[in-house]
Amino acid sequence: MVEDELPMRRTLDIGLRARGYDVDVAASGEEALDMVRRQHPDVVILDLGLPGIDGVRVAQGLRTWSNVPIIVLSARGAEAVKVAALDSGADDYVTKPFGMGELLARIRAALRRSDTGGGPTMVTTEHFTIDLAAQRVVNQQGEVRLSPTQWHLVEVLARHQGQLVTQQQLLAEIWGPGYENAAHYLRVFMAQIRQKLEPSPARPRYFHTEPGRGYRLQVDEAESPPGSPGVDSSP
Questions:
Q1: pLDDT per residue over 70-86, tens digit each?
Q2: What class has domain 6-114?
Q3: Where are the domains of the chain?
Q4: What is the pTM of this model?
Q5: Pairing verdict, β 165-166 and 214-217
Q6: Mapping DSSP to helix (H, G, I), strand (E, B) and coil, where does residue 3 land?
Q7: Matching CATH topology for 6-114 and 122-217?
Q8: Averaged over 33-49, what is the pLDDT?
Q9: Cα three-residue angle 103-90-217, rounded to 5 degrees
Q10: What's the Cα-to-Cα distance from 197 to each of 16, 40, 41, 57, 191, rounded to whole Å?
Q11: What is the rounded distance in angstroms from the CA atom of residue 153 to the CA atom of residue 35?
């Protein structure tokens, strides 16, 4: 847990320990990066407004070498701030003030995403292979590093290969109830996935958007369906 405000740090530390979690506490971004390297936590709870290296830069730094789930805490609730945090590598965002029950639910969801079981199914394309059993994606350069949330989104689409998965289905499956209006989460993470997996992210070949409806993983097409913009331009 990375939080510079002592009262909040104490409250969260006590609340999480009381519910059976082992907690390592950092008060700055620099301390957090060092602690994650040493402790290898299951989840990082990260405040944005930190002294020195701020939370966005901490998330960016972690994503260069770690797939640990990151839940951002911040009093800044504007959508632009949330999108910036998600773009930096965070998996979820909780706006202060919040209840302990909500935070615990987000932690449980993050742990489920990072430990999702899979069957023996392989989805193979010209440019990458999705191994659902091993929970990884491999391309010609080797394994593609995906965050837990990126992987979970790829996994859900792969398990419904060729089928439309609605925004509501994806939001409920990946983030849980209460996220029905959080379509910007999907836009951010789908853009990240396309950057990592598509041969031409601006003209998706595999991960298609059906505006206002949902997303589809299509492995047998050479390009986006005619008339489909492919990228996310609508909620």
A1: 999 988 777 888 888 89
A2: alpha beta
A3: 6-114, 122-217
A4: 0.61
A5: antiparallel
A6: coil
A7: no
A8: 90
A9: 110
A10: 37, 27, 27, 24, 10
A11: 28
